[in-house]
Specification:
Blueprint lengths: L1 H10 L16 E2 L8 E2 L7 E5 H6 L5 H5 L43 E5 L2 E2 L20 E7 L4 H4 L6 E7 L5 E11 L6 E10 L7 E12 L2 E2 L26 E3 L21 E2 L1 H5 L8 E3 L2 H4 L5 H4 L3 E3 L6 E3 L2 E15 L2 E18 L3 E3 L32 E5 L6 E20 L3 E20 L4 H9 L15 H10 L3 E24 L2 E20 L15 E20 L2 E12 L3 E15 L2 E12 L3 H5 L3 E5 L6 H6 L4 H4 L4 E5 L8 E15 L2 E19 L1 H6 L8 E3 L6 E5 L1 E23 L2 E18 L7 E2 L13 E11 L2 E10 L2 E2 L17 E2 L2 E10 L5 E8 L32 E9 L2
Parallel strand pairs: 4-7, 30-34
Antiparallel strand pairs: 1-2, 3-6, 4-5, 6-7, 8-9, 8-44, 9-10, 10-17, 11-16, 12-13, 12-20, 14-15, 17-18, 18-21, 19-20, 21-22, 22-23, 23-24, 24-25, 25-26, 26-27, 27-28, 28-31, 29-30, 31-32, 32-35, 33-34, 35-36, 36-37, 36-38, 38-39, 39-42, 40-41, 42-43, 43-44
Helix pairs in contact: 8-9
InterPro entries: Beta-barrel_TonB, Beta-barrel_TonB_sf, Plug_dom, Plug_dom_sf, TonB-dep_rcpt-like
Keywords: Cell outer membrane, Membrane, Receptor, Signal, TonB box, Transmembrane, Transmembrane beta strand, Transport
Pfam families: Plug (PF07715), TonB_dep_Rec_b-barrel (PF00593)
């Protein structure tokens, strides 16, 4: 029985809660990572299981929070807080209101999310991956996380691994539950209400119908509600690099009041910007403003522009957690035809309504735009008492954080659905089959609710002089100015996207013949899909000032045809090998074949060895293939570095007058490909204790990245295939930029699982740890460049932490049980202020400290049909660790939402009542 004990204990390694009964009947089930049903046991692949009981006791209210408990999930900007405000070429601003999984930190595209082993439609906004918010958490029975590549089983997206949400399928009764989770410091209140009901017993009645509906309401949490969200801490190397302030700074410019520059008495330096409050030493008289910390930014923004300017802590204005309302529902009807066959119908739907808020517009006026402050305006600001050359007969150019226009607010609505008709059972008493036809889809709608307006109207309003960009502290705009501002705004539909997926899939598996060591089991199956995606603007975004932008993509479709086979071969009594191969044929990018081999070897009852090697692929997304293909021109003076070296002085190479380039989607993209593997050991050195150690490695080539033409030209040695030349002259005809196959990466590490359980004086207890040690994450921007190590370094997309773990201790006796949960994230090298060019302030700490969070909960079931769970999240009210980073790459001024929870200490109460 020790072998059975080992299999059961190790299957629970992770944060799974109560141990399963040792005398439960052993049934054949399909485990994530294989298409062959078998008796559940620890197999060749590392699969972590999280039960709904643990999810509930941990106070988890949504699937995004659930993925934070998985150590193998990336520490990245794929959540609703940071994911909607990532800047740079690889940013995805079409996913507002969505959250994604990112195993191994490879990005949402490289993690396959399944529901009951089948695919879901991708997010309707970006079209790139499954929105976790569309998964009905209340209907989940368990979650299985495969921490290995699985393209040989499931096809594309499975390079980082697979997250399989398993729903309740045969429920009888009626129960209602509610969860309230409120923070001690206010803001970020979370509520969830759930109703679950089911009729019919599948074994005795031959049918079962169940349905559940859940309603979630999460309140907004603003940076202003937390002291640690502070972007002005110059003594620690953190200060906002902006002169766009609520009390405007005045700019230089030919024909303007400040002219092309000015000098101060006794100073020969020519300065380029000035602010009245700075000249008066009163920058801090306006909330959030301060004297610009020139010493931190000298080599980025010259002191000639900043010495007499105020700055603004715009990071303190950001919303940490958006207000969200979500309704999810799932229903399932199962009908037993006979003892060997059953059919079922499953319908899932969800609607998420999120309100995304960004800081108000930052406006820089120009004479050409007609928005300069006029000489005859009632609020004309005269700096001649401070600056002798100030010409008050000229209009004023200024830079202004336009707070009176309000926060830029976007309403994001996500609708998701899936309908499935399926059959499963046994043929000839020994072959398991399943067959399903499904249709799933997602629709995203973005509306502009406030803070945006027509560019022409805003420029005219500013140029009228009625709006005052220098409102004194404590004062406000006039009613006339407020009405004028309101008249410039745009309210209404902005952009929308939609994905659909129609899938027909089937498989058959069973034992086919015997070898001396046992029976060989095989599976074969097919997967036929039609996928579509379209994205369009509802209004001309170019006419709206500082709009999010419309990445228009006319509806495109593709067909996927796949066949696969798998075998479990017993080589020796204690050695089993898994072989798998799958061929996918995409109507757009062609065909790919991916094999996999894995082994499971158990030489003794206390030792298990396992490992795998496989190839994977990631098909380019619709947006990467087709979005916004534009032909544009670079300005005068472009240098062809390669051509100019060969033809010195030739203007066709050394000073190109106009250079064409293409950007946006690229129909010629190739799939990303991977080679990866695992090697693990599972041991039970003494009774009630088991441990697993799984080493993993992933190498990826042809990574798809979005690159500018300037980057392509600068890196011509590595990207020469994207520089298209005239065959007769050798001169550059144009540059292919946008999405290209560019980079490679190599990552490796070790997953660690520990479990110890037992009984003492009538108490059952279990201590569990799920951890990931990332040994290396090396990235090359372009093939041919040296790989750069990213582990424990600040990064603008993912922070690749050396060590992450979730540990839990559960204890139960009678009607009582308790759970103590610890989440740990190791520290990393901080973002260096100004790249270190300006030196380091005395208080700068080059390391971001580790983050540790404890959650404690207790559950009581002593009242009839009632379960009460009360818990405290962030028991010791741990603040996020300080980072000398502001919001210009990832949201968070002085803290990082990818690593830490901003809510602080919170009380969670769940009440569940079963009516029958």
């Amino acid at each position: 029985m020790k072998v059975k004990k080992l299999a059961h204990m190790v299957a629970l390694i992770g944060i799974a809660g109560p141990a399963i009964a040792q005398d439960a009947p052993m049934q054949r089930v399909e485990i994530t990572g294989s298409s062959i049903k078998r008796v559940a046991k620890e197999g060749a692949l590392p699969v972590q299981t999280i039960t709904f009981d643990t999810i509930q006791k941990a106070g988890v209210t949504d699937t995004e929070s659930l993925m934070r408990l998985v150590s193998a999930n990336g520490t990245g900007a794929d959540n609703m807080t940071s994911g909607n405000n990532v800047f740079g070429a690889d940013a995805d601003r079409t996913s507002g209101g969505a959250s994604f999984a990112s195993l191994r930190g490879l990005g949402p595209n490289a993690t396959l999310v399944l529901l009951n082993g089948r695919r879901l439609g991708n997010n309707g906004g970006s079209g790139k991956a499954v929105d976790l918010n569309s998964i009905p958490l209340a209907a989940i029975q368990r979650v299985e996380i495969l921490k290995d590549g699985a393209s040989a089983i499931y096809g594309t997206d499975a390079i980082g691994g697979v997250v399989n949400f398993i729903l309740k399928t045969d429920y009888e009764g009626l129960e209602a539950s509610t969860t309230l989770n409120g923070t001690e410091e206010g803001g970020g209140m979370q509520r969830r209400y759930t109703l679950l009901g089911g009729l019919g017993n599948l074994e005795t009645d031959g049918w079962n119908v169940m349905a559940t509906v859940s309603r979630e309401v999460n309140d907004k949490l603003s940076s202003s509600q937390r002291d640690f969200a502070n972007g002005y801490q110059p003594g620690r190397g953190l200060s906002p690099d902006t002169t766009g302030t609520p009390y405007a700074n005045i700019l230089t410019g030919a024909g303007s009041a400040l002219g092309t520059g000015f000098k101060m008495p006794g100073d020969a330096t020519t300065y380029l910007q000035a602010g009245l409050l700075s000249l008066q030493g009163k920058c801090d008289s306006v909330p959030g403003m301060s004297q610009y910390a020139s010493e931190l930014w000298t080599n980025v923004t010259p002191i000639t522009r900043t010495k007499y300017s105020c700055s603004y802590d715009y990071g303190g204005d950001y919303v940490m957690s958006f207000p969200v309302e979500r309704t999810t529902g799932v229903s399932r009807g199962t009908f037993k035809i006979n003892s060997d066959h059953r059919v079922y119908v499953e319908v899932l739907g969800s609607r998420t309504e999120a309100t995304a808020e960004l800081t108000p517009m930052q406006i820089s006026t120009t004479l050409a735009a007609g928005n300069a402050y006029p000489v005859n305006g009632p609020y004309y600001q005269d700096l001649s008492p401070y600056i002798a050359s100030y010409d008050k007969t000229k209009p004023i150019l200024y830079k202004w954080r336009a707070n009176p226009f309000g926060n830029r607010t976007q309403g994001v609505t996500m609708d998701n659905y899936r309908a499935l008709v399926a059959a499963e059972g046994t043929l000839a008493g020994k072959y398991d089959y399943k067959l399903g036809l499904s249709k799933s889809g997602s629709k995203a709608q973005v509306d502009l609710l406030d803070g945006y307006g027509w560019t022409s109207k805003i420029n005219a309003a500013l140029g009228s002089g009625i709006i005052n960009p220098w409102v004194a502290p404590g004062a406000s705009q006039t009613q006339q100015a407020t009405d004028l501002i309101e008249s410039t705004k745009y309210y209404g539909a902005f952009q929308h996207g939609r994905t659909t997926m129609t899938q027909l899939d089937g498989s058959i598996s069973g034992e086919v013949f015997n070898l001396p060591a046992g029976a060989v089991a095989m599976a074969a199956g097919f997967d036929l899909r039609k996928e579509t995606y379209g994205f369009a603007g509802d209004v001309d975004a170019t006419q709206i000032l500082l709009s999010p932008g419309n990445a228009n993509l006319p509806e495109a479709s593709r067909y996927v045809r796949a066949v696969y086979a798998e075998a479990l071969v017993p080589i020796l009594k204690d050695l089993e090998v898994q072989l798998a191969i799958r061929r996918d044929n995409y109507s757009v990018v062609g065909a790919t074949t991916n094999p996999k081999i894995a082994f499971r070897y158990q030489p003794t009852d206390w030792l298990l060895l396992r490992g795998s090697a496989n190839k994977g692929f990631l098909a380019p997304s619709f947006a990467q293939l087709y979005a916004g293909r534009l032909s544009q021109e670079l300005p005068n003076g472009v240098i062809d570095q390669e051509g100019c070296a060969k033809n010195p002085g030739n203007p066709d190479f050394c000073a190109i007058p106009r250079l064409d380039y293409n950007t946006g989607g690229n129909p010629a993209l190739r799939p990303e490909t991977s080679k990866q593997g695992t090697l693990g050991i599972v041991i039970e050195p003494f009774k009630n204790f088991s441990a697993s150690f799984d080493w993993w490695a992933i190498n990826i080539k042809d990574r798809i990245l979005n690159r500018t033409p300037q980057v392509v030209l600068t890196n011509w040695q590595y990207l020469n295939q994207y520089i298209i030349r005239d065959p007769s002259t050798g001169a550059i005809d144009h540059v292919e930029a946008g999405w290209i196959n560019a980079a490679g990466l190599k990552t490796r590490g070790v997953d660690v699982g520990l479990r110890y359980d037992g009984n003492y004086a009538g108490y059952k207890y279990a201590a569990v740890l799920d951890g990931t040690y990332m040994d290396s994450f090396k990235f090359a921007e372009f093939e041919g460049q040296p790989y750069v190590e990213e582990v424990s370094m600040f990064n603008t997309r993912d922070v690749y932490l050396r060590w992450k773990h979730t540990a839990s201790f559960t204890v139960s006796k009678g009607d009582w049980s308790a759970l103590l949960l610890q989440r740990y994230a190791s520290g990393y090298n901080d973002q260096v202020p100004n790249g270190g060019k300006s030196g380091f302030p005395a208080g700068f700490d080059p390391r971001v400290h580790h983050y540790t969070k404890y959650d404690l909960s207790a559950t009581y079931t002593g009242f009839r049909n009632t379960t009460i769970t009360a818990g405290i999240q962030n028991l010791f009210d741990e603040d996020p660790p300080f980072t000398a980073h502001n919001v210009d790459e990832v949201v968070g001024a002085g803290w990082d939402p990818r690593v830490a929870d901003p809510r602080g200490r919170a009380l969670s109460v769940t009440l569940k009542y079963k009516f029958f």
